[in-house]
């Protein structure tokens, strides 16, 4: 059974081609018919003229008889009359139809070269010509030639039969071609339809023939790519959900354990206080984690508003430093900041503050006592660059490509103790990129890490 699209395409092709064929055939047919009839008429007149030429040479009764006898054997009929249309002789008995033509002719008006008297083969029984016998510029007689219209009809019938045969053959070939064509077009479409159905049913790995160079090939390529993207997204989502549930479960398990201990009769007030403090810390951590997840979700749904403005970046850096300096000092880490007074950027100050705090927080967390953190700012014509470097533990080479991914932590056990959940850099990267900027990292394990943040400066009038 033909599917709908190929039926539609097929029918459309078929109708268009059929119409064109009918028009062309009609023109060809009528031209051929006209040509054939004209040819018969020309022959008839030429034959009559030949007779009249002979008679002009030798206008005697024996020659006239001769003409009649000659035509009695042919498929034509001849009637020879005198100058006023009195029949002298004829090749066949004169039927009324022949008589009528002879009588109704204007005998003097016929030119010397003869004329066609009747060419309406479809209505009249005979087509006819008149060739006058002219001696000394006088019509002394007339040679009337007749051809049976049925002869012409036979010729036309043959022609029609041939046309019918060729026409049917063409229609058949057209149907065949259209059928093949519509299959060539709709087969790959059907396959792609099946593929997309599979996609929506959750079967994400579809195989499509993608080597065609035309639009159908491009469509197949897009669908294949879509299927791969979906597969990747599905995997990422599963991984993410796995990590998230792990992240949430771990602190909850801790808290439940500590609460069980607190509830035991034999727990001292001292221990109780200690465990309550741990529970508080874990709760803060969980709240932070959920807040971060919430921010990332907003970024994903494009609901994360960035309101860029031209700011003096120095002011921002000062508040950030004031914010984090006490914590850094407490850990016994040296902290120096260096930037030019006229440092500017075209950014959302609240968001960039969040980025700087995230990265400084990392530098502090992953750097031991006695080391140092340096923050610098610089600018050129188009961009402002902030670097934050530490002489901390660095990041293992194999982890570097992944540290900006969500929930990714290098050396997980270590970060766990530092309370990280692996979202800080992911958020920082999203924010910087939403600004049209870039964030990169250079690190050597055991020696330290440098984060380089480039931000847009904006046009002078922004
Ligand atoms: N300055 C750094 N020195 C060494 N390792 C770092 C540094 N900054 C980041 N890392 C590594 O990259 C990982 C990802 O950092 P990210 O800030 O995304 O997460 P986190 O600090 O563990 O948790 P969160 O920031 O969500 O509290 C960290 O777990 C850490 O292993
Ligand atoms: Mg962090």
From TrEMBL:
Task: List the GO molecular function terms.
Answer: kinase activity
Alphabetized InterPro entries for the sequence = BphY/WalK/GraS-like (IPR050351), HAMP_dom (IPR003660), HATPase_C_sf (IPR036890), HATPase_dom (IPR003594), His_kinase_dom (IPR005467), HisK_dim/P_dom (IPR003661), HisK_dim/P_sf (IPR036097), Sig_transdc_His_kin-like_C (IPR004358)
UniProt KW ATP-binding keyword:
yes
Print the keywords alphabetically.
ATP-binding, Cell membrane, Coiled coil, Kinase, Membrane, Nucleotide-binding, Phosphoprotein, Transferase, Transmembrane, Transmembrane helix, Two-component regulatory system
The catalysed reaction is: ATP + protein L-histidine = ADP + protein N-phospho-L-histidine
Location of the protein in the cell: Cell membrane
- Check the record and name the Pfam families matching this protein: HAMP, HATPase_c, HisKA
EC numbers: 2.7.13.3
Keyword Endoplasmic reticulum present in the record's keywords: the answer is: no
Q: Which CDD domains match?
A: HAMP, HATPase, HisKA
Spell out where the chain crosses the membrane.
9-29, 163-185
Q: Which PROSITE patterns match?
A: HAMP, HIS_KIN
Residue ranges annotated for the HAMP domain, each copy included: 183-235
Q: Its principal location?
A: membrane
Give start and end of each Histidine kinase domain. Answer: 243-459
Q: How does it sit in the membrane?
A: Multi-pass membrane protein
- Coiled-coil residue windows: 216-243
Protein name per the record: histidine kinase
Organism lineage = Bacteria, Bacillati, Bacillota, Bacilli, Bacillales
